[in-house]
Amino acid sequence: MIYTITLNPALDRTLYVKKIQYDDSSRIEKEQRYAGGKGIDVSRVLATLGVGNKALGFVGGFAGEELEGRLLNKGISSDFINISGETRTNIIVNDMSTGTQTVFSARGPEITPHALMQLIHKVENLKEPNMVTISGSLPPGISPEIYRRIIEIAKNRGATVVLDTDGDALKVGIDGHPDVIKPNIHELSRLKGIELKEMDDIIKAAKSIREQGVKIVLISMGAEGILLVSEKEGYVASPPKVKVQNTIGAGDSAVAGFIYGLTQGKELKEALTFAVAAGTATTLKPGTALCQKDVFLELIPKIKLTAI
Fold this sequence. Notes:
Elements: E1 2-6, E2 10-17, E3 28-36, H1 38-48, E4 54-60, H2 61-73, E5 77-78, E6 81-83, E7 88-95, E8 100-104, H3 113-124, E9 131-135, H4 145-156, E10 160-164, H5 167-174, E11 180-181, H6 185-192, H7 199-210, E12 216-220, E13 226-229, E14 234-238, H8 250-263, H9 268-283, H10 293-299, E15 304-307
Parallel strand pairs: 1-4, 1-9, 2-7, 4-5, 4-6, 9-10, 10-11, 11-12
Antiparallel strand pairs: 2-3, 7-8, 12-13, 13-14, 14-15
Helix pairs in contact: 1-8, 4-5, 8-9, 9-10
């Protein structure tokens, strides 16, 4: 079983306005709502690609119930810890006159020590955890140490662990030796404390992280594609030029595409190609919609793979 863990899930409320009128009323033309959060996005894309999985994390209040219901309607099973606080709602405003997006991300509810330990016990008792992904920001009340702890528990259970987060959570999580990490270029720069622009420097940084006990390092680089560094292999997979409508969820979709490749028994270079195809497919969808399988499949042969 594949499990996705999202400690700070959200409802993504996407609003479309003809033009943002500052200091005046801006009429909403269309509204869409999705279950959101980085791990939730991974679950949604895996389900779209036909891969069964179960979503874990914390939910609370009416927003939490709506999030669970939206996952259920997509055929995604979940086993959340219910909390007293309200699941956060993120607001994404699309200005149709300019094609630009503005994202307002909420902090999320505070998690009590009791709820935190409930999650730990749930991870300790996961049924046949073949793969566990841990993604996203930390809600108030939780130390970055939680990521290291979850990684160690999951690995002791025999799971392959994928970590996708930022800042101190990423730094501490790496100490748990996840099998795969996927920072973007900005997150990698923050982790290393320097701005990384040149490919040679990015590769060097990725190799230094691998030497800390991470088997596979994936670095997403926007339109330049994704870099993969493992013990014996190194590749850059680049997407074709496309008209990008949205970048929200592209990295999460890439994680799901990579996992999809692994579940299909593919080699790392093929799984990397799937990652770029899934991420690119999501950029073609507006708002917080994610990739569609037919677009994903069409993109796979268009991905350029280069050994490094």
